[in-house]
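FAQ: What does a multi-protein file look like?

Like this. Sequence, then C-alpha cells, then the next protein.
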Amino acid sequence: MRAALYAAWRNTYFLLEWVRALADEAGISERIGQIAARWLVDGILPGGVAEVLARRLMRVPVEARPMLRLAAIAGRQLDLRFLRNETPQLDALIQAAAEVGVLEVHAGDWRFSHDKLRERLLSELDDLGRRQLHLRVARGLRAVYKDDDAHAHAIALHYQQGGDVHSAAFHYARAGEAAFVRGAPREAEGHFAQAIAHQDRIEVSRLARVQAWSGLAQARYAQGKLQETLAALQAMFTLANAPLPTDGRQVAADLLREVSKFSSRRLRGYLHFEPPDLDGEERQIQDALRKALSIQEVFVWMARPDIFLACLLRGLNLEESLKTPLLERYLSYGLLFLLSHTPLRPAILSWLQRPENQPKDLAGQPAISYLRVAAMSWLNAGNAAAAAQFATDAVAAARALRDDHELVLGLLQRQLAEGSLENYDQVLAISQEMEQLSSRIQNRRYLAIGLLGQGLSWIRRGDFDRATAVLERARAAIPPEFGILPMSMVVGQLALCALRRGEVIQAEAHANSTMAAVEKIGWGLLPLLHPLANALEVYLSLANGQVHHEKIQGALKRLEWIGWNFPYARPRALFYRGRYEAWLGNALRARIFFEACVHFAQKRQLKYEEAEAHEWLSRLGDFPGGRIVGARSAEEHRRDAQKLYERADALVDAARLAGRAAGRNALRVK
C-alpha cells in the first residue's frame, strides 16, 4: 500500500481510479485483496494512469461514445441544449456514462468526472477527426444559439480550431460586440483583435473590416488607450477610403473639404436637388464611420482641437447625408459642446432650451447625450446649479439604461458641477463611486479622474497627506499615452500638496512639470483652471520666484484667457492677478484685483475664492488715508475670510486664519 499512497500523494484522481479499477477487476469483495497485492507487486496498475483511463472508458457503451467525443470537444461541462439537438436518446446515453463513472452531476449540471477522461477521449482523435468535430460543434452551437451573442466566442473558437477562418472572423466580431455591450472592453478588444487577425488571412468585405476596426477603436477608448484608439481609427478610416488628417496641412484641407460638402448640400437643398441614396453596403460603412466618430473626444484628451474640429465637421456631414434622426445626432451635440466654449454660448443655451430640440423623455441614449451637453454648457456659462441638475438627470438615465460608460461620464460632469458649487462632500462621494465604476469597466483614465476628485476634496479639507497619497495613485493610473490634460491636473494638485507640506523642492519640480504639460495643450479648456492656479501658487510662494517670472507671466495669460471665456474661472483669474501684483509690490493694483475677485466670487457664490481674496486684502493691511471708496480695515477682511472658510468647510484654513492677529505678516509693498 506504500506505493499506492505515494501515487495518491502525486495524483488523488489516480488513486480513486485505481480503487475503482480494482473493484471492477475483483468483481466481488473477497478477491480485492488478492488482485491488489498482485497490482502492487507489478507497479500499482500495469500501464499506469493511461491504463486506468482506458479501463474506465472501455466500460462506456459503444452507442454512447460518439456523444462523449462530441461533448469532450465542446468542453468539460455538458451543454444539454446543444447535445440534445445533436444526439437522439441523450438522457439514456448520459445515464449509461454516469453509471461507469465517466460523467457526474456537479452544481446541478452534468460534466466529465475528471478532465483527464475528457483529454483521453480527445487523444484518440486524429487531426482530421478533431477538426470535423470542432466544425460540428460550431455549427450546432450556432443553430441552437443563433440569437444569443453570449455564445459567439465559443462558436468562434470552434470555427478557428476547425479551420473555418471566415466564420471564425465573423463570430469573433460578434463576440467583441457582445462583450462591449456587457461592459467588458478589455475582453471586447481581444475579440476584435482576433477578428481582424483572421480577416487578414482571407478575402472579406470592406464593411466587415471597417466594423471590426470600429469596434476595436471603441473598446480601446473605453479603456483609456488613447494612442491605440487613434491607431485603430486611422486604420478604419483608411479602409473606408477617408483617411484622418495627421498634420496641420491635412487638417486644413479636411476642414475645407467638409465645409464645401456642407455648403454643397445646402445649395442642392435650395435647388430642390436630392443626391442619389447610397447603396446598402456603402451606407453601412458610412454609418460605421459615424458611430466611430462618437469617440472623437479622444482628440480632446490628446489636446488636438484641430483634428477634433475636422472630425466633428466630418461627422456632422455624415449625420446629414445619412438622414440621422435629430435626437440621435450625437455629433451635433459634440458641435454644441465645442461652441459652448465660445462667445456663442448664449445661442447654444437658447437652442438647448427649445422644446423641439429636447428629448420627449429623459431616458435612452439620445436623452443622455442631450443632458450631458446641457450640463457642460451651463457649467461653461457659470451656472453650476443648473449644470448639477442636468448632470444628475444624465446619471439617472445612465443607471436606468445600465450603461456603465455613460454613467461614468455623467458622474464626471456631476463631479465638476458639485466642485463648482464647492460641495466637496458630494465631490468625494461621487469621486469614490467613479473609482469603483472605472475599475469595473477597466478604464484607467476615469479611474485617475475619480482619484483626482478625491484628492481635491482632501485638499479643501486641509488633509494634504491623504490628498498626496490619493493623487500619487492617480498619477500611477495615467501612463503618458493617456493624455497630457489629466496628467497636468494631477501633477498640479501634487505641486500644491507638496507646497503645503513644506516640500519646496518637490513643489517646484511638480509646478515645472505642470507647466510643461499645459504648454502642450493647444486650447483653453476650463479644466486647465486648477493646474494653472496651482503652478502660480507655487511660483509666487517660492523665495526664488524671480527665476520663474516668465512662466508666471505665461500662466497668468492662459488663466486670464480662461477667466474671460468662462465666468466660473473669472474670480480665480482675478485673484492670481492680484497675487502677482502683490508679489511685484504693487499694493494698490493688488487691492483692485482682490476686490474685483470678491465681487465676481459673490456673484457666482464661490465662497472659497471670496475667502482667499478677503484674506489677502487683510494681508495688504489698512490702506493709508482710506482713499478707496468703501475701504475696510484689514481686521474686517480677516474676519470675513474666516467666516467664509468655515462656510466653505475649509476648517483648516479657518483655524489657520483665526490664529493670526490682524495686521500680522503684512506684505512689504513699494
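And here is the next protein:
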Amino acid sequence: MALRLNSLTAADMVSNGASPDPVLEFTAFLSELDERQLQILRDRFLGRPPRKLAELAVDFDISRERVRQIEVRLKELLARTFHFGTSIGNLLASLRAEIQPIAALDRLITLHPDLARDVPGVEVPLWLVLDRLDDYFEVSDGWAAAPDVGAAREQTRILLEDFATEHGLVDLAAATSATAMPKAELLAWLTWCGYVVYNDQILTRTRSLNDHAASLLAATGEPLQTDELHQEMGRDTTIRSLTNVLGSDDRFVRTDRATWGLASWEVEEYTSIRQQIGLELAAAGGQIELSRLVESITNRFDVSPSSVQAYAGNGEYEIIGRVVRRRESPAAPRKAPSATRRLFRHGDVWKLRIAITRDHLRGSGFPVPSGVASLVGCVQGEVVELDSDLGTQSIRWTGLQPASGTIKRFLDQSQAREGQNAFLEFKPYGRFSLTVREPVAPGTDPLTQALELVGAADTRDVEAAKAALATAVDLPEDAKPRRILAAYRQRGDDDIAALLEQVWTRQRDNWTGQQTTAESRSEAFKLSMVEADLPTSVDLERDAAPHADDLHVNSVNTEDAVRGDGGLDEDSSAAWVPVPAGYRSVGWVRPHEAEAAVLAYQLHADVPVHDGDEITGWARYVDEASTRALDLNANVKLVRTRGQSERIACWIREHEAFSVTQASAERRSVAVTGPDGEAAGLVEYYQPGSEEATRFLSSTRLLRGRPPG
C-alpha cells in the first residue's frame, strides 16, 4: 500500500471516484464510535497537546494500559477505514506527493481548501486530523514536513552544502531549481531555518562572526567599510570586536584604513599609515621627500595628506628639511607623568583615575595619556606588558595615541559598576593593579573630595592632606598652596582645583571670624590668595560667568551662516541648530581643519588649512605655558582667513580633532573620548547637501559635554 501511495501524483488523486467531501467522510466515521472511543480520539489522538494516559484512565475508571489498548485499536481502525480510494486516503496521498520534503501549510490549504475546515465532533481543522492520522509527515509552526521538521531541515542543509562555495554561498536560483517549492516559499523556509539571504545568495555559514563576515563579503563581491559590514551583519557585537576578529583571521585583508576584503581577491593590502611609511622608506633607500611620500600613499589608499604627514613626523619617523627618515633616537613624550591630568603619585606608585564606562565593563581597550606611556617606558610603535595578579596587562602605542588593553577581568573581580571611579596603579618593576572606588558624594567636605579624587586616604590633619595633595602632583610635601593649586590648574585637574579653592576660601572666613556675603566672600578670597601666596588671577566667578569654552560659540555659528548671496552672514539668527541636552556647541569644524589641527599637535607648529589648492585658514599651535591654552585645556586655535584678516573659529583639543576626522571618514556621528578614556563630547555628522551642511559649509559639528549643574 505504501509503495502504491508513494508512486502516485497529485493529479492521479483527483480523478478517483471516492466521496468528494473528506470532512463528511470523517464525521461519518466518528458517528460509529462509542462515547469512550470518541473521547479518547478527541483528547488523546487529536488533543493539542494530547492528554496523558493517566488522566483518561481516571476519567473512565480504567487502567492506563486499557486506555493505551483502545488508542492502538483506534489507529488501526483509522488506517483500515481511510485507505486509498476513500476521499481522505486520496487526500493523504496527494499531500505526500506535495510535501517533498517541506511545504508551507498555507500553500497546501490553497490547493486543498478542505484542509482548513473544522471537523464537527472534534472541533479541529482537517489538516490536524490528517497530520495525526498519517505518520509520513508532521505539521509544525505553519510547515508540513516529511517525516518531520527536523529531518526536513537536515535535508535542506545537505542540499545547500552540495551547492556551497568556498565561503558558504549558495545561489538562490540554483537552490530554487533543485526544489519543488516556489521561490517566495523557499525564502520563507530558509529564514525559518535561520539562514541569511543577501544579494540573492544564501549564506550557509553564519554561526561565527568570522564565517558570517566572510560570507557577506563574498556575497557583496567588493570591500566594505567596517561600519557597513557591521550594519549588514546585524549582529549584537561592537565595531571594535568585529575589527579585532577581522584582523586576526587570514581570510581577510584590510584594503584601506576602515575597509576590509577577502584575501582570495588578491587585492593590495593596507596595513597602517605607519607601516606604509616604513615600506616607502625601505623602497627609497632610507629617506624620501615628504611630498613624494604623501602622494604615493594617498594615491593608493583613502587617507588624507595631513594624516600621512602627522605619522611621518611622529614616533619612529621624523621630518627634517621636508625629508622623512627614521628617527635615530626615541621621541620625547609629549607630557611627563607629573604634568598628566588625572595621574597622581603616591610614593613609588602612580595612579590614573578613570570613570568606569560600559565599554570598560564589556572588555574594550581605551586610550591613555602619553604620560602613562612615558611612565611604563612605552615609546611609539611598541607594546609594553605589565605583570599583575590576574595576568599580563598591556600598554601599546601603535597608533598616534597610547592605549591600554582590556581591564574587564579586574573590574569583574571587584564587581565594579558603571559610573564608579577606578584607579589604574602602575608600580615599580613593571607591576600593575586596579582599585575601584565609589564616586565622591557632592555634599562631602571639599578636602575629603579632593583626597578621594587623587586616590589618597582621607585625613582630618590639614597639613597631612596638603602634603598628600602636593606629592600627588610630584611637588615637595612642603609646597605652598599657590604652587599646589597652580599645578592642578596647569594639568587640567579643574575639579580638584575648584575643591581646593573652596577649602582655602573657608579658611579665610575662619581666620577673619566674620560671616560674609557672597560679594564680600569673593573679595576676601582674593585677599586670602595674596596672603597665602596664591595667584590673584584665579577666576572666582567661573561658575557664575559663561564658560570659557562658550565665549566664542555664537560667533562660530553666526560666522558660518550663509547669506542668500552665498557670503557669510555674521549676524544670522538662522545659524542656530538645536544642541542635544548635556552638550554645548564648540563649532562647525570642517574635516580638513581637523586634519590640520591633528598635524599641529604632532608637530607643535602652525599648520595651514588647505581646501584644495587654497589656504583657507590656520591651525595655530599655542604652547602649554600660555594662559589661554591653560584655561581652555587646548593647544590649537583654528582660524579662518578673510582677505588679509583672520577670525577665530574655535579652540580644539587633540582627541576632538581626531574624532572629527573619524566622523568624516566613517560618515557617521561619533562619541568623543578624552585621553583618560572618558566620554568628552560628540561629533555630529550631517550628510553633504543637507540643509545644515550647506548652511555651515561643514558636515561635522563638534560638541563638548556640559559639566553637571
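Q: Is there any per-entry metadata?
A: Some entries carry free-text notes. For the entry above: Residues 1-18, 506-574 have pLDDT under 50 and may be disordered.
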